[in-house]
Input
Amino acid sequence: MRRSFLFLAAIAFSVLISSCASQPSRVDESITVLARFDITPGREAEAEGLFLKVVAFVRNAEPATTYRLYHSKKDPTVFVFYEVYANSAAADNHSKVTLPAATKEYGTFPAGLLSRPPDIARFSELAR
Output
C-alpha cells in the first residue's frame, strides 16, 4: 500500500512539474524591435547604401546588440530591421543616443526616399 502511494505521489508530482514547465513565461527582459521601411520605387539602392552605413555604425556603437537588415525578396521596396536589445534601457539608449549620432554622421533620410512612414514595433519575448 505504501509503495502504491509513493508511486502515485511521484506521478502526481511529475505531472505538476511538467504542466508548470509548459506554461509560457517571460524569458528575460530583452526587447525585440521590428522596423519596416517602404522605399520609393527606383530608390532601393540609395536606401540600401544608407541602411548599410547605419548598420555598421550601430554595430560599432552597440556591439552587444543584435542588429540585422533584411531586404524583401517579394517586394524590392521593403527593408526590415530586426533588432534585439538586452533590456528596455538598451533599446531606449539606441533611440535616444545611437540613432541621433548616426543621423549626425550620415544625415536624415533624403526627401522622398520613404514612400510612407516607417512601421516600428517593440516586442517582449515570452518563450524560447
Q: What stands out?
A: The chain is about 45% helix and 20% strand.
